[in-house]
Amino acid sequence: MGKLTDLTIEGFRRRFEAGDPKALLEALDLFCRSGDKMPLWMREALIARLDPFLRYEIKSLDQAFDVERKRERISSRKMRLALQPAVAWEVITLHREENLPIDNALFERVGKKFNISMGTARDFYYNDNPARKLFEAMPTEPPATSKLSGR
Q1: Is 145 part of any domain?
Q2: Distance between CA 91 and CA 138 in Å, rounded?
Q3: Residue 84 near residue 129, CB atoms below 8 Å
Q4: Which of residues 32, 65, 98 is at a domain's end?
Q5: How many CB atoms lie within 10 A of CB 17?
Q6: The model's pTM
Q7: How many domains does the chain have?
Q8: Do both 18 and 46 map to the same domain?
Q9: Mean pLDDT of 16-45
Q10: 3-state SS class at 38
Q11: Residue 33: which of 25, 44, 43 has the closest Cα?
Q12: CB 32 within 8 A of CB 46
């Protein structure tokens, strides 16, 4: 696994162990997309949730994974999911490249770019945004290259 994937998975594990059941599904999504080997904690948690469902002890996967969709319009949630990574990227890019503080003025600027309010931009950045954590972990400079001897 790559270092960023390791950091992201560790964050999912901490969230899951702290009682956030959605973190397990997000970790599963990352592993299915990456093709990496699933860590033991994730395998055990998945088996513990799938087994009662497969044995018909519980009625739904929502129940198995202890998650449910909140009473939120699907179109609103789709917009949030689509814009969260873009908002996070824009905030972090402006903060790093233009040395701007992460404050209401920056969220106002980002909000205008995406045609959302300053408060929505701030909410998209801070709340339930795994992309933000990934982008924050990315180095600001490319890794230094070393010359191999004899070449």
Answers
A1: no
A2: 14
A3: yes
A4: 65
A5: 11
A6: 0.53
A7: 2
A8: yes
A9: 89
A10: coil
A11: 25
A12: no
